[in-house]
Structure formats: structure tokens, C-alpha cells
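Working notes for the structural subgroup meeting. M.R. asked for a predicted model of this chain before we commit to crystallization trials. I am recording the input and output together here so anyone reviewing the notebook later can reproduce the run.

Input as submitted:
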Amino acid sequence: MKKILSSIGMLVSLIIIFTSCSSTSHVVEGVQLNGTYKVSDVRVTGVDTRSTTHKETFNDAGNTSATILTKVKLETTVFDDVTPNCFIGSEWVLPHNGNGTYTIPQNGDCYAGTRNIVWSVRTDENKQKIFQLKILNGQKAKKVTEGYILNFTSTSQTGFTLMSPVTVDGKTAYVYYDFVRE
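Returned structure, recorded in C-alpha cell form:
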């Protein structure tokens, strides 16, 4: 009898150990997100970033007028890193253990390079799946106490879209990132 109870106790201990060490589920709407992705597009809503044209008349000798193109460049950074457009073409490696990377490509004013991250899929208080991201900046994951929460707006076997609020000129805008599986 002691052998049976001892064996049952050992089995229960092993079950507890294996379930406590299992990796976080990265499944959203039946789609396993582990893998490598490229960000194919980044959109910002809630602020006007369209180019505009207007006519100006200069009061020189000929009363010359010109049409001037005014481009709005969104200077807000995301993830305390780079502007949203810098993420277009970035590669994200999201392995099952949650220790991943994203790489910003060489693109104009963008600070190119690879960033180490810890990522996970969590369920919020409204039972919605959310993407949690911590940028390590050379620190150990357990030392990083702040991170970013992004909402899933769509998922499929070929990719997913995340949305994150940002503050621009005191207003809330939203940045959408389209991820395509490689």
C-alpha cells in the first residue's frame, strides 16, 4: 500500500512540475503565432497625416504665386524606440519560449538593428487576447518591469494585425501593425 501511495505521490509531483514549466500558449482564435513575421504595413488613425497643398502669393516684383506641398511627418515614437513608419519591413522572430527579437531595417531616419524582446499572449479582464511585449535593452527579462500591450484586430494562418494607442499632440491615435508570416 505504501508503494502505491508513494507512486501516486510521485506521479502527482511530476504532473505539477511539467504543467508549471510548460510554455505560454501563443494561440489566438485557433492560430498558433510562434514563427517569423515581417511587418508589411503600419497605419496611424486618429490624427491627420495626409499631405496638403496650398497656394501662396509672394509679394515680389512680379507678384509670383506658387503651390506648396506640406507634408506631415508623424514624429511620435512607439515602444520608446522609433517612429511608426520605421517598423515597415521589420522582421519579428516570435519563438515558442517567448524570447524573441525584432529588427528595424535601414530606412532613412530609422535606427536600424535588432532588439531583444520577451513576448506573450495574455487574456485581459474582458477575456480578450492581448499581445504583451517587453523590450530588454540588454537587461534580463525579470528586471524589465514595464512593457507594452497591443490588441489583436485580426488573426489568420498567414498573419495578424495588432493595434496600439499612442498620444499625439494630446490626442489619442492608434497605430496598426500588419504582420505577415514568412
